[in-house]
Amino acid sequence: SYELTQPLSESVALGQTARITCEGYNIGSKDVHWYLQRPGQAPVLVIYRDTKRPSGVPERLSGSKSEDTATLTITRAQVVDEADYYCQVWDSRTGVFGRGTKLTVL
Amino acid sequence: QLQLQESGPGLVKPSETLSLTCTVSGGSITSFSYYWGWIRQTPGKGLEWIGSVYYSGTTYYNPSLKSRLTISLDTFKNQFSLSLSSVTAADTAVYYCARPLSGFYYVFDYWGQGTLVTVSS
Q1: Residue of B38, B48, B101, B106 for testing the chain A interface, max A β-carbons within 10 Å
Q2: Are A33 and B47 in contact (CB < 8 Å)?
Q3: Fewest beta carbons within 10 Å, which of A42, A68, B17, B33?
């Protein structure tokens, strides 16, 4: 089955830029979507189709992709950005999620 | 404002059937633009897409669950439901109902709050 690999954790200083990666074989050929999840809450879609932001998602969050890695970038990191972040793709007739990256804002 | 709310038993015995209902308010499940879906989350496996249903009744299921799974609509009540048979402890999870983005059936932008279902005797 297809696997998406994310780092377990990342940290970023307040006001700096965080980058969360998601690796998968030939991920460049797939649409990549990103969610954040705060403790005790449902996930929230923050990026779809690699780079598109749903309404209400700040421009500080952006997505990019290369052949084997998708990246969620958070600029000017704020305390509110502390959350778990998950990437997702479609493969083998199912939606596949990464295991998530816990972002800590220092 | 679209809202989704899961309901159902919080405890199910092994080998029995897990049944959950999602009540939708602020929108119609018969809208031709949208699917309606279920996702679950466990500490061990993380997030897992379960499946989605269209207003016409067309369904898409996770192949790993397909043999045990039924997702259906109740248009009169504006609800959709999940039925998962022959459950084991591995089916213990927080179950979310959600609405995908228009044009997708597996990318979700509206979620319920989630409901914990424990499989135990």
Answers
A1: B106
A2: no
A3: B33
Closest CA to B80 of B30, B36, B113: B36
pLDDT, tens digit, for every residue of B40-54? 999 888 899 999 999
Over the stretch A66-86, which tens digit does the pLDDT of each residue have? Answer: 989 999 999 999 999 999 999
CB contact under 8 A, A42 and B96: yes
Cβ contact, residue pair B49, A94, below 8 Å:
yes
Q: Give how far A94 is from chain B: nearest CA, Å.
A: 5
Residue stretches of chain A with pLDDT short of 70: none
Question: Quick count: other Cβ atoms within 10 Å of Cβ A65?
Answer: 18
Task: Report the amino acid identity of residue B113.
Answer: Q
Residues with Cβ within 8 Å of residue B44, at least 6 apart in sequence? none
Token pair 């972040």 is found at: A85
Q: Does B109 touch chain A (CB under 8 A)?
A: yes
